[in-house]
Each structure stands twice: as structure tokens, then as C-alpha cells.
């Protein structure tokens, strides 16, 4: 399979295009947010205007290359407006800012529409608006002074630099074809040949009439004596005269811009764009190495190997840990990717409503695994829409309550140890627990006596629950919160709710930051083997079965001067009791105190790779995932804290008395 | 518009079923299923496939048929339906078969047992009937999973 076939190249080109558009749009949104702060009459920061111009110019260029006309036109329209702003022929106003915001939004929709092969939004309206905002004067040609002002370094340098080295510049164009390819003349071969005779100053792929054309600018010390061998292979040389200041003679304005944009993105940098799938693969392989090393360690311990071997194993463990951490770091991106969208989302909602809301962002530089970012987009969007729709009151209500008419939705991200914490807080009306309970009952849900934040959250996250009778545009179709809760759980995290009636609501998402490898204690329960995360286990004790007592329905054993309630894991697995003289108990602690988990046997302590139990059929409280110890058989990972939720702790002042009934425990 | 789609044919309790190959990821021998407590009765447990934990659904139990011990013919049919990957435990699975759309009839009332809900049609090939499986219906969650009890009830009481 020749990777140079036009179709393959086009696909790669498009993948790059989409990735680059994503980055550019994120940056554009961030700059527009910055601009917003100055719209009240102060002069906008020229750096921001220039950055916006540059990004839109790049977007225009790459859109031109892949032939996405609407994006090209729209970016061009926005560019004109920014040029006017930078030259101060027009002042920044809310109307102008809004036009830029809408244009950015449309650009995002165009790119995503193109990607999904869906209909593209109409841009007639916004184009007209942009045009009208630019003061009427003779429009400069696309290749204008403003462009070179905005990015002179990139345009002039490569060619000038080459000339200054005494190289002759030629433009060489190459159109791949099946015939040429059959003779071994493909773009890589061409590249090599050109490198052999000189320096490739610039390489621009473009799509003309559906096929790819490569245009190289080559600097050679000596002009080739004979161009015939090149011509025969479809390579056409054209000298670039030194007189043109940027080496352009017979190019059209469009290809000039295309080159500029392309050269901007081909400028060597130390950024490498990597497909997430490749990083997943690296992670998977690393996970397997962890398993192998763990088995090695078991063997070393079993076979009583000498200290030398143990040392090597430790060194290996250290290196593996470094490797894992290094790969994790590669996958990290700032959460700004999601955060910068929020002001725009809220702006849209505000447009269609009487409510006034502003968005405040904190910690958008917090780095998060790319996979997490992708999974969190929808849940966070939903929480923000939710806050807007249900939390925030109308300006009149707010004023009546003594609050400022404009509400604030705060999104805050920070890393706390091994966890990522994201908070979405609004200063709206808070959760009305009474109304919530009433609504839940009306829907037939079981409602506990006293509603606390935890049970309120559970109710909100029940599929089908909604506090509105009809779904409204913003939120409330009754699926949203359930999906948020599921996603958070699937990612191994927790969701918490904190709310004060009249003051506001805060949702806190806590997600594990680092990759899912942990130390675990491997235990047997009947025929089954399970893993218990070591971090949850305080100690392992082996009391005699005779010490167990039954107090008010809870089996306890004496432990460190008080009582330790215990749970038999065999019961969880619906296995019958077996008699035994000694209990093996893992002491697990939680905020509610210590609890003991009774297992049959502790088999080993191993590093495990945690695989989530993603499918809905596998949602079982107390089981947090699965792993394997090297033989391909899944073993379950228990969630000790969840298991201990069901325990009713006897009052702490209960007498532990030899006269109390003995509990038969196994 | 394809006139004949390719199906994987598997056996369950003597009857032949077909599932469109576009849903089938691969078929594997059944080596070990790790039971997961407190899941629906039809969920026998989980298996590993390519680093992922996949639920294994016992299709006999799902269809209300009596369980049988696994033999060397028992197979795991890995399906991907709308982003979910699930494995079905079946008595045997071997064949590929092209089934022309024209030879598929909607099921008649008489043929319907509990499995009728999961069958979207019958194809008659070379004097045997093959029931075309409605994969979506087989995996419909509400039917597999009983309504959620309070979470405490699912955990062992002391």
C-alpha cells in the first residue's frame, strides 16, 4: 500500500487539518475572552488583536488548502475586521465583539460539520455583518501590508535566509500519479532527490482540482546542468528571481496565502502532534510490562533467588514507574480546551433568555489526561447548562433577594494530590430539597425521610428525573444528570453536591489524575480471587473466630480497644460459610471508621493494572474494576469503602461482654 | 443496497440463530468467565478481550432456557453494538452464511416463545430455518437488569 496515493494523503491532510483547527479555535476563543474584558471602552491589547489575526489567518490558509470555502471566507471576513481593529480604523464595541464571537462559533460548526459530513451552517448573515462593520475603503489585496506586519518573520525568513547563504532558489512542483509511482517516483523519493541537490526551504502540499500537488522551494548551490531527468519524472523547476522581495512572481494571491498558512504550520517547532490511539497503545504495552514484572517478582520471591536478582527487579520496577509517569505526562493537555468554550455556551443561553449570567474560569491551565478531557466535555457542558436553566434566577428575582442581577457561574479546576478536582458553582437559588423530595415522590421514586445532599444528588441523577414538565432547550430532558454521574463513575471518580437554599449550588467532580496502576492485595474468596487496593487497607489481622460477637445484628471483633464490625466477603459472593478457627481480616478505614473484610486467604501483594468495568451490565456496588495477574483470567477489584457502606455500626458504648452471644463467623 | 448480507450462524438449544456479521468482532473459545456478584442472572460474568473487560451474557439464560455445562463447542461471540462490546455465550458457532434479504420472513406468531422478542425474522436456507437475532433487543438493559434496589441491600449485611 503506497502511502502516497492521493486519497491517503488527503485523509492525512484532513486529520491534520481538523487537529489544527481545534487548536486554533481554542486559542481564538481564549483571546476573545481576553478581549471581552476591554470592551467597555479601553483600548484592546494589541497583542490580543494580533494573536487573533494570526490564528484566523492560519485558519483561513489551511481551510483554503483543503478546499473548505465557507471557513476560508468566514475567516477572511473576520480577518478584515481584525485588521481594521489593529489599524484603529474602527473601535472595539460590544457589537464587534459579538460578531467575532458568532463568527468563531460558525467556524467551529463548519469544521465539525465537515468532519461529520453533515450540512454546514449558513454564513451569509454573519459574513454580511462582518463586512458592514469594516469601515468602507478600498480593501487591500489579500496579500497585504497588514499580513506582513502580522507575521513578517515567518514569511520572509526561510527564503531570505536561503538566499543569504548563497543558494539559488527554485520552485519545484510535483504531482503524484500512478504512473510515476509505479516507477518509484513518489513524494518521499522526490524529497530525497531534492535534498541531495540542495536544501528544501519550503514544502507545501495543496489540493488542486481534487488531486494533490506538492510545491517545494529548493535552494541549490549549483543549478543542475540538465533539467531533463527531472522533467521526465514530472518535476518542473522554475527559478525564483531574487528581485521579488518575498520571492513571488507569477503566483496567485490564493496560493500565496495558502503557502503562508502552510508555512506557518510547517515551521519546524518542538511540538509533535500525536494520535491519541498511539498513546493508548503505549499505555497498554506499559500495563502489560507491569504485569510481567509483577510475575517476575513473585517468581523471585518464590524461588528464593539471590539478592542480585532482587536488585535488578527493583531497578526494573523503578524504570517502569518512570516510564508510566512519562507517558502519562505526554497525554496531558490543559483543561482550557473545555473551559474556553463555556463563556460562549453561556452567551448563547443568555441571548435567548432574560437571565444575566457571566462565567468565571479558574485553573484553566490545569493539565488533564487527554482522554479525560474528551470524556468530560459533555458532562461539564451539561452541568453548566443545568446551572443556567435551574440554578440561576431572573434578574428581578435576584434583585428582590438582594443579589446582584448578574449571576456568576464559576468553573474551577485544580489538581489535589492524585486527583483532579473540578467545581461548578453558581450563586443561584440553590437546591430546594423539599420540592425535590416532592417531585421525586410524585414520580414514584423512593425518598428517604430526611433528604441530605447525598440523597438529593442520587435523586437528581436517577434516569428519567427532571424538575421540569417539558424538556427545555438548555437542560432538563431527564437524561443529562444520569449521564454525568455515569461518566464520572466510569472514569473512576466521584460527584458531590453542595447547596444552600437561596445562595447557590456547587457540583464537585473528583477524578483520578494518574493512570490506573496500583498496589493491591490479592485475596481468595472461595474459588474466586480478588484484588483489594492496598491504599484502602490499614492492616491485616488474624483473630480467632471465637472472638467474634453479635451485637444488635452486627458482627464485631475486639480491635485495638474497641469494636470492629466485620463483613464476610463470602456472603457477597453468595458462598456458604465454612468452619475455621482463624479469621483473616483486612482492616479498611473510611470516614465512618474502621471495618473488617473477612477473606479466606491473603495470597499475594501485587501491582495491578486497573481495567474499568465500563458496561452498564457490570455496575455493581462494591466492585470497582477488574484486572488480570498474567494468565488472562479476569479477577475482580473490590471497592472496600463501597462494601462497607452497608454496615450498621453498633453504638460505641456497647459492652463487649463474654456473655453476649457468640457470632459464628467464617 | 446489499441484496445479501453476511451472517454468523450459532446454535442454541438445537436452534440455529444468525447475527449480522457487521456486529460481530470475533468468536473465541470459552476459557474462563469470572463471575461478578449481584449482576443480572443472564450475566455470567466477565472475560478479558484485548485488554478490555467484557460482560459475558449467557444467551440460554437470557432466553429462559435451562443452563447447560460448557462443552468444547461452547463459544463466546463478541459483538459490538452502538459502542458497547458484549460477549454472548452460545452452544456452538462456526459458520458464515450469506443470507439474501429476500429469504428473510417476519416471524409468525406460532414461532414465538420467549425468544420471539429477540428475533427479527426467519430465513429458510437449505431446509433449515435460521432465526435472525435482533441484537439490540437482546442487549436491552431494562430487561436484563432488574430495577435497582437500594444500594445497601446489594451489599452483605452483617
What count of helical segments of chain B does DSSP give? 4
Give me the Rg of chain B, rounded: 17 Å
Low-confidence segments of chain A, given as residue ranges, are 138-156, 243-268, 469-474, 654-660
Biggest interchain interface, per-side counts:
A-B, 42 and 35 residues
As a percent range, the share of helical residues of chain A equals 40-55%
Largest sheet of chain B: 6 strands, mixed
Tell me what portion of residues of chain A adopts beta-strand conformation.
Answer: 15-25%
Q: How many helices of chain A?
A: 22
Q: Alpha-carbon distance between the termini of chain B?
A: 60 Å
Number of strands of chain A: 22
Order of adjacent strands in the largest pleated sheet of chain B: 8-1-2-11-10-9
Low-confidence residue ranges of chain B: 146-158
Spatially, the strands of the biggest sheet of chain A line up as 14-18-19-17-16-15
Q: What is the strand and helix layout of this fold?
A:
The complex is a heterodimer of chains A (666) and B (158).
Chain A (H helix, E strand, L loop, with lengths): L5 H31 L9 H21 L2 H18 L7 H22 L8 H10 L11 H6 L1 H13 L3 E7 L3 H5 L4 H11 E11 L2 E10 L7 H5 L2 E5 L13 H14 L9 H27 L4 H24 L1 E3 L1 H4 L2 H10 L4 E7 L4 E3 H22 L3 H6 L5 E11 L2 E8 L6 H10 L10 H8 L19 H11 L3 E7 L3 E9 L4 E9 L2 E6 L3 E5 L7 E3 L2 E6 L2 E7 H4 L11 E7 L2 E7 L1 E9 L13 E6 L5 E5 L1 H4 L23
Chain B lengths: L3 E9 L2 E6 L3 E6 L13 E7 L2 E7 H4 L12 E7 L2 E7 L1 E9 L3 E2 L13 E7 L2 E6 L1 H4 L2 H4 L6 H4 L4
